[in-house]
What we know:
Naphthalene 1,2-dioxygenase Alpha Subunit, Chain A, domain 1, 4-stranded antiparallel beta sheet, binds fe (ii) ion
Amino acid sequence: MSAAEQLQQPYIIQTDSVKERYARGWHCLGKASDFTNKPKTLQYFGKKLAAFRGKDSGQVHIIDGYCPHMGADLSRGTVDGDSLTCPFHSWRWGSDGVCNHIPYADHIPKKAIISSFKTMEMNGLLFVWHDPEGLPPIAEQTPRRIDDYYSGEWSDWHIAKFTINSNCRELVDNMADMAHFGPVHYSNVETFKNIQQGHTFTQLMTGGHDILADEGEKFTSVATYEGPSYMTTTMTGSMEGHEMVTHLLVANVPINTEQFDIYLGVMLKKDLTLSAEDNQSMVEQYTQMSVDSFVQDVDIWNNKVRIDNPLMCDGDGPIRMVRKWYEQFYMDRDDIPESLANADKTHETKIKFKRSEAA
Length: 359
Ligand code: FES
Ligand SMILES: [Fe+2]
């Protein structure tokens, strides 16, 4: 084959098979108030889980979803104090995953232990710690408190859940993918910067926005992943002359290696010069606009392929940088190189056009 013929060969997409391992870190499961004394079935990290709020402690507990006695679904059981009683033969499982009562036996088998997961509540959200090595949470990775949530000056979270037919890494690419913000999210990007620091990855964007800012007005967004699953964004835009400040939540939780759930949340600063009624209608309208602007991604993710060798051009954002950062959550703790664990890097993507000029 001549050199000229070789040059015309089509690019070959690589889609490596994905190992069944789920990221280490706090995963957000939506609003904490959705978890009550009525057990909930969760399908995450490749297994069934049972979640329930203990009646004594008021804490949410998450344990394996299947009873090892004869396989019944524990999430169909009943809460007894801080334990969950299986619906089949009434073995009772504690929040630590240890069986603490069998109504018809003198001895509880020593092996009667199932997996249990640490949980925490922060910013009105429930988090579950997942670690393939079974180690306790890392203190520095506790999600940061959002003071605005507790201030009384903001709306509560409005949360929508979507199931996406793709591997959850595809979502994280977004952080560095400058070029999709115009076509997909109606942003007119003017500056785009990423900062990688240890377990966090931040995107700072300024420009305009066709939906979330009035014409000719500025739109700014600061989005930070704290660990592999939990991203919050503070966006400043405008609507009919009012400045609109929003916190957006985008949390991914793997169902398996080919599907994940997204919890998309919006919380909005109230305009205290408006009546309660006008505030409510403004919050509802802008929340819907924020959701509409975000869900354009969903259709792309549901129909794309995972590419391990993306064909990049010089105007693209640092996709490889965000993927490298994300790899740390799939490694054993002792294997994470210093360069990832203590990384402190900034990357600025040069913007070569305005979307209006490129159309
Ligand atoms: S299957 Fe759960 S108690 Fe028998
Ligand atoms: Fe996006």
